Amino acid sequence: MAKVTLLEETTKNPIQLMGKRAGICWGSDITSPDKNYRRGLDCLMAGHGRVMEYVNVEMVLEGYSARVIREWYTHLGGMPTRLQESTRYVSYENFSYVMPDAIANNQEARARYESMMSKISNTCKFLEEQCQIPREDAAMLLPLGMSTKIVDKRNLRSLVDMSRQRMCERAYHEYRALFSDICQALSAVSDEWAYVVKNYFKPKCEELGYCPEKKSCGKMPKKQGEATS
């Protein structure tokens, strides 16, 4: 089962931290949590995104497909970093994998899908055990639908930017589910995180007030003068 596990290094009170960092540069009193909180809110509401880069998020993403994690890696803003489960050292015998609902709900398609995954697993085992093929070479058979695990580190600004694209109805469905899991995990950390997620994690159409996509889902109107495709 796919899940997000936040690590202890994740900032507990992001708004206070942003206000504290800004206060240092403004020559303000940074000893008061209330003042730091109000200052942090002011920064958010004024669009001073740089302070968001001080808010740390470290997490383990587990059980998502290698395909969606490849997309996750495309968001490089704000100096994120990550480690992914190794195909050189981790045994993928009877590997777990992700099955899209469109396949799971079709009996014939599901049977074919499961059969193919089983064949890949058995062939990997045969190559390693019977042919003495190195695991890193046998693993070339693995599909992008296999589930994987990564340790990810990034900041709030990176996640807010990511939400603009990945909370869009036209984003890949597994990515939308992944981002929803992250929102839920962060919201449970503290009231400050719940506020940030509710007010700043949103698709770009909600931020802009219109849909800039050529092929709109229809959730928001197109920019005036543009027809919906």
Mean pLDDT metric:
92
Roughly what percent helix?
Answer: 40-55%
Give the SSE order as H and E letters.
EHHEHEHHHEHHHH
Low-confidence stretches: none
Biggest β-sheet strands, sense, barrel: 4 strands, antiparallel
Distance between the termini: 37 Å
| Contiguous helical run count | 10
The helix/strand class is alpha+beta
| Estimated share of beta-strand residues | 5-15%
What is the general shape? globular
The rounded Rg comes to 22 Å
SS elements, strand count: 4
Strand order, largest beta sheet:
1-2-4-3
Task: Please describe what this structure looks like.
- The chain has 229 residues and is α+β, with helices and mostly antiparallel strands.
- The protein is 46% helix and 12% strand.
- It has a four-stranded antiparallel β-sheet with strand order 1-2-4-3.
- α1 (14-26) packs across α2 (33-45).
- The longest helix is centred in the middle third of the chain and has 23 residues, at 107-129.
- The protein starts with a strand and ends in a 21-residue tail after the last helix.
Keywords, separated by commas or semicolons:
four-stranded antiparallel beta sheet, 46% helix, 12% strand, 10 helices, 229 residues, alpha+beta
